[in-house]
Amino acid sequence: MNKPYVVGIDIGGTNTVFGLVDARGTVVASSSIKTGIYPEFDQYIEALNEGLQTLMKTNGAEGQVHGIGVGAPNANYYTGKIEHAPNLVWKGVLPLAEALSSKVGLPVSITNDANAAAIGEMTYGAARGMKDFIMITLGTGVGGGVVCNGSMVYGFDGMAGELGHITARRNGRLCGCGRNGCLETYCSATGVVRTAYEFLEARVDEPTLLRDRENLTSKDIYDAAVAGDRMAQDVFEFTGKVLGEMLAEYVSFTSPQAIIIFGGLAKSGDMLMKPLRESFEANNMPIHKGKVKILLSELKEADAAVLGASALGWEAK
Amino acid sequence: MNKPYVVGIDIGGTNTVFGLVDARGTVVASSSIKTGIYPEFDQYIEALNEGLQTLMKTNGAEGQVHGIGVGAPNANYYTGKIEHAPNLVWKGVLPLAEALSSKVGLPVSITNDANAAAIGEMTYGAARGMKDFIMITLGTGVGGGVVCNGSMVYGFDGMAGELGHITARRNGRLCGCGRNGCLETYCSATGVVRTAYEFLEARVDEPTLLRDRENLTSKDIYDAAVAGDRMAQDVFEFTGKVLGEMLAEYVSFTSPQAIIIFGGLAKSGDMLMKPLRESFEANNMPIHKGKVKILLSELKEADAAVLGASALGWEAK
Hints:
2 copies of one chain form a homodimer. Chain A has helices at 41-58, 96-104, 113-124, 184-187, 189-202, 218-226, 230-254, 270-283, 301-313, and strands at residues 5-11, 15-22, 27-34, 65-71, 75-76, 81-83, 93-94, 108-111, 133-138, 142-148, 151-152, 258-262, 293-296. With 317 residues, chain A is an alpha/beta fold. In chain A, the strands form 3 sheets. A 5-stranded mixed sheet of chain A has the order 3-2-1-4-8, with helices on both faces. At the A-B interface, helix 7 of A face helix 7 of B.
């Protein structure tokens, strides 16, 4: 019998990574194309199709791929469309599932990046066997995926789980979504940098490795914190505190067994996790205290996005 | 063929109301006992059983009741127990489902009041046909019920949907749960009264019908607002604003088709609903604006709690 495969595609603003995945969740082979260099969406779909055909042919998987799962920004599971994604060059509403499916000749199912990560974690990672958990991805922005009763929560319109846009500070920092105080403006990689600049301005006389640096990144701040820089450590303390507060809000909402954290900032170790866990427990309702686990993703970073998206390929039809 | 019934029980701190409900959702007959007058939980179960037996006998429903559904404060759907309910005279963990089931000889399923209301609304009320909606009950406190993918969200430990304890104001008013700033401290009947006292203190020179009244109630404030009292109107304006902000947070979380409002304050009409709807739309993310309905409960207030609880009786086993 032929071995069944799925294809997972992770569409980012810069790169589109795609991989061939077997039923055990092994990424057998993967490849990528640049996302941003195609002025027209059709040209991009054409290039992506070529890449996929080559990948399947090279690995002897032709005719054995069950379906394609895609994780993409602002992707709507119900409509199969990408809706107004700020980080992509093509504007408006893009019929991704339909365009890709008719070109490749395979069923395509799409969802946003964080939901794809949640499905990956449930299928292959830290959430195996869990029916109620929350996924949170800490990247340039903050994404969320909510699983209740063993099912991904897409919501009425396919756009549920915008956990990066729960308000952390009423009338707080201006967010890309046009509102103020969203969690994403504090606890994403860019949020961490904003915090550092705020601290630099508020504590003008304090010596710190962060001062007079141009284009600070969250990595710079992490390195300074590891090197013992007080202000940089305070940035992580603050980030963990705010994130812990908000994860406690999520618990009041759906009472998950665990919250799984994924993405660059999640690799900051105790620098982030210690204040996060303290703040989380301090802010949980008494009925939830000590009950909810905070776990780090168990998916290998390089594979996670493709793997998560691919899990959706098994149910594509 | 015998007509099938269920029994719905609504346990409140003061009264316990129970009714016989047919398959069409008609409360055929109902009765009640006082909740707080039994020093021992066993005595209460004994009295409740007597009441139920009489109700079933009087209405010729003996042997035709499929099951019993109970809505009670801090009730855990999974364990069948009431856990540390602050408004009941019996402390600790109470094995309600087991005690009642063995006494009455019928299967018993329990959940908290707001979840019961959500199930009632889904079965007989404003949420018929909806698979994704949120129920919010505005009473002495604020309760929540979350339905996703057509299923009640109980969460991992049976205590999901504590929407009254999502933080409306960081470091805000002290809540009965021991935390600060919970929605419940602003948008419940008691929260409205707290707002009025705050306004009275902050605006000492302003003439208002609310001043020098002892034991203000939310009803007094509503009456004053209707009579044209500026401060009382401002109290409702503020309450609607805060509630609208928080309902928008709920939308980012599970993207419901509608949010259904139930309880005393919901009867305040435009005094509450106008600022609420304005604040809700202003605070929704652009992708959700104009898409999510805010509806009032369609269940008759007198029947709603019993009806909601009874719907759970159909699945009790």
